[in-house]
Amino acid sequence: MTKHILLMDGPDGPGLIYHVTSVLFRHGLNIIRNDEYVSPDGRFFMRTEFEAGNTVDTPDGQLVLDELRHIVPPDVTLRLSPKAKKNIVVFVTKEHHCLGELLIRYGFDELDANILAVVSNYTTLQPLVSKFGIPFHYIAHENKTREEHEDAILRTLSIYQPDYLVLAKYMRVLTPGFVSHYNNRIVNIHHSFLPAFVGASPYRQAYERGVKIIGATAHFVNNDLDEGPIIAQNVQEVDHRHTASDMSTMGRDVEKIVLSQALKLVFNDRVFIHQNRTIIL
Amino acid sequence: MTKHILLMDGPDGPGLIYHVTSVLFRHGLNIIRNDEYVSPDGRFFMRTEFEAGNTVDTPDGQLVLDELRHIVPPDVTLRLSPKAKKNIVVFVTKEHHCLGELLIRYGFDELDANILAVVSNYTTLQPLVSKFGIPFHYIAHENKTREEHEDAILRTLSIYQPDYLVLAKYMRVLTPGFVSHYNNRIVNIHHSFLPAFVGASPYRQAYERGVKIIGATAHFVNNDLDEGPIIAQNVQEVDHRHTASDMSTMGRDVEKIVLSQALKLVFNDRVFIHQNRTIIL
Amino acid sequence: MTKHILLMDGPDGPGLIYHVTSVLFRHGLNIIRNDEYVSPDGRFFMRTEFEAGNTVDTPDGQLVLDELRHIVPPDVTLRLSPKAKKNIVVFVTKEHHCLGELLIRYGFDELDANILAVVSNYTTLQPLVSKFGIPFHYIAHENKTREEHEDAILRTLSIYQPDYLVLAKYMRVLTPGFVSHYNNRIVNIHHSFLPAFVGASPYRQAYERGVKIIGATAHFVNNDLDEGPIIAQNVQEVDHRHTASDMSTMGRDVEKIVLSQALKLVFNDRVFIHQNRTIIL
Amino acid sequence: MTKHILLMDGPDGPGLIYHVTSVLFRHGLNIIRNDEYVSPDGRFFMRTEFEAGNTVDTPDGQLVLDELRHIVPPDVTLRLSPKAKKNIVVFVTKEHHCLGELLIRYGFDELDANILAVVSNYTTLQPLVSKFGIPFHYIAHENKTREEHEDAILRTLSIYQPDYLVLAKYMRVLTPGFVSHYNNRIVNIHHSFLPAFVGASPYRQAYERGVKIIGATAHFVNNDLDEGPIIAQNVQEVDHRHTASDMSTMGRDVEKIVLSQALKLVFNDRVFIHQNRTIIL
């Protein structure tokens, strides 16, 4: 049976759950899973998975949506999650571990997304990508201004029209101009437990500060470096014997798993953004 | 404003969320938080926190309950969580760590429950309990059959009529006869990551098996030793240097925190039981 | 049998382990546990637990120390850990959880230290402390300059001559002048995963940043706020439903356990400090 | 500079550390890292990394070994770790995640071992293996007795003479006869937190028991199913919403990381075995 996901957010008000459930009830549609959240500042978020019951052949998601648009207040946003898999382009520099993880998952249909292409400012990872038959675009940044480099990337992206960009250890900062093309649609993995160790060489910073736990953070990219909404984090214990280089090696396992887990949430339409925080339903 | 918690469980069917939300909507009551779950075998569970909106002074929980009873199918159970704190009696033997944790929390009003009394088969912890001005009942098991001992305990409990019994490292097995008096109302902390190391001396067993992680499990007690529904678990890394005794020492920190976290869930009516598993909403 | 702990640190050089083990071997002393570490910048650290073998009645630690002083280079520091328990004074403000943890452990002889007294700038925790028969010194900071307040504290400390000060949620910043009296002998628990959220209201900061994991850090106090060498850290997962206040409540469990674990390391002479980092042997 | 690893184990006795350090000191060799452990039942284990100091060109490991053999008691085992990478053969059935992890690491020279070949009782993973240019041996078990099947495998292994076999989700039980050929040289990943859920379908068992944490265990294989010495374990939180199938999906991330971490320890000669427990130095 076809499953639909209804996504709703807006100012909280009386009867929002009731309105949705009454429309679904009237159409004989079954709620498989429903999650809602009201933020302390009074914003309502809801994610409803529903499907046809026994008596109805196909739930007409669009019909439900149209009907709800007449009932709920106009400032409440309603979306139906597109059923098709998300299309993504993956950005890398030289490190293979996050890309390798995504390729293996994609190769066995576990990614909940289609990798349309890989973009890199180095050729290091081209052999790995070619093993999986995915287009690899080498777009060097040398001898280019930042804007020229990003323009070249944007031209390449225009071929693919991806839903999301995944920065799988892409070691260049994107300009606000570039980011504005993919607002809340760029996911980055940062190799620290943000907001600790923003910026470059976080494992070096972690070593020098003498922390006992390192971590990784998957987040949306916005215009402030490493300041976008956090989607997932995880950590790993270290001790004084670990050099910055050891931490970097150990951190890779955390980075790739955190990135994968964050992408799973994003690609399944489970992530809302509100005031630079994620709400995960 | 007075808050109510509505608890509902029964066979899944069309419109259950809708029915509840429509009744609340009609009475002008606000849903603060709503969580539901449908098990793979088709049972529906819902926990709804609601309170009066601006236009209504007091939500009449009983009225809502009565109205819902006429709407939902008869095999759906509906309960209103009693607003008052739960009353508990704590059982201990000789170890102080879980009891100490509960007493400190209780002393600073963080337990979400009233400790009416402590029962023990030893006098070891009497001085600790007396610091907090709580009745301590020493009920020795020596020279008594198991039934005589439990009868003595039951007589003591009859004074207090507790809602829950908390076995905070009570090192005796309770008979089915005793357990039947407090069905799903006895919470135990077991000093292992169940179902590993059921029974006596779990840290000794863990040491001998050479595990790299130890744990603790808070669970409801039923008639099969260490087989009741699990409420919460947590773990702690160990290595070959740790003796069984070291593990026991380290494990205490896990035990007391897991027990506290499980009790918080239970005392806030967030735990449903279905087929020997807990559903935590 | 009496156990000794030999602590050694200095520039790395040939034969340091050999020298120690040869002296112990000649005296018929058994090494129970030996841990060493050489930092990347070439500093050697060693902690050696030893005791008499079967043929010798008492290991004369001082004799071993004197003999080693003639063998190892003069810039190598050698210390014998004093066998007696460390004496401590605990500082608190209004929060009870860390203090309660320390008192319960102390009351059951699990702290590896003697709590000589508790100092506070409020009277809130006096009733708790008095349950355990420990002197409580209320030293108000109102109507005093920071220096006057610290002078009053120093006068009180002069009675006790503690080995360590434990800041168990003491919510005032100490001046460099005060800290200099207890260099590397003040342990603080900070309610964040340092270096994230230095300073005041870390849970509020964590909430606003939208982190998915919170933490706590036990560290030595030096002249830079929250910048001293980190001894232990631990973390706790949170999600969007948790308010800053929820995080604060959940964080308490982490704080008290991390503080206890750090103190155990410090009181057992397992912590060396080098370049603002701890080496834990 | 060439690094050597000396491995030593035997009954504890006076001067063992001293003997090793004195021989190394006399030869002008530097100890880079030294770890030792004495088990409660009196067995001594030591792992010493050493290299030439400034005055000596190459440490002659064999010379050190020969000299030590004359000094230490005859029941003490001394080994020099072979410097070359370990050679391994990987066994799989149908699941790709552990194999994919090993291949990616191997492809980027991060495995500390050479994958000589992959053996499988299915062809499912042949395409993945062929991407990395490694021989894939499909050895079907159908229409063969267990002994015939294992004989066919042993014939294949005889070509490669691997140091270790890695069972990367190989879903068949090996006979004692087979295991005896690779005593303490077969590493398996079991998809549960052993000793919980021994045997088949551990995630199904975990779901039915209603655990709140699942895990994975890397262990040496001996003749008792899932009873060999544990090398590494890790865990992952789950809740009532997770089906056995969800747990299986989530568990894969834990499995592959735990297996990789265990192999790193084994391939770096950091794992000793004593009484069915691992000692990791």
Automatic annotation (TrEMBL), chains A, B, C, D:
Belongs to the PurU family. It comes from the Bacteria. Pathway: Purine metabolism; IMP biosynthesis via de novo pathway; formate from 10-formyl-5,6,7,8-tetrahydrofolate: step 1/1. Residues 5-83 form the ACT domain. The gene is purU. Keywords: Hydrolase, One-carbon metabolism, Purine biosynthesis. This is Formyltetrahydrofolate deformylase. NCBIfam families: PRK06027.1, PurU. Catalyzes the hydrolysis of 10-formyltetrahydrofolate (formyl-FH4) to formate and tetrahydrofolate (FH4). It comes from Fibrella forsythiae. It catalyses: (6R)-10-formyltetrahydrofolate + H2O = (6S)-5,6,7,8-tetrahydrofolate + formate + H(+). The active site is at 226. Gene3D superfamilies: 3.30.70.260, Formyl transferase, N-terminal domain (3.40.50.170). Its EC number is 3.5.1.10. It is an enzyme of class 3 (hydrolase). One of its GO terms (molecular function) is formyltetrahydrofolate deformylase activity. PANTHER family: FORMYLTETRAHYDROFOLATE DEFORMYLASE, FORMYLTETRAHYDROFOLATE DEFORMYLASE 2, MITOCHONDRIAL.
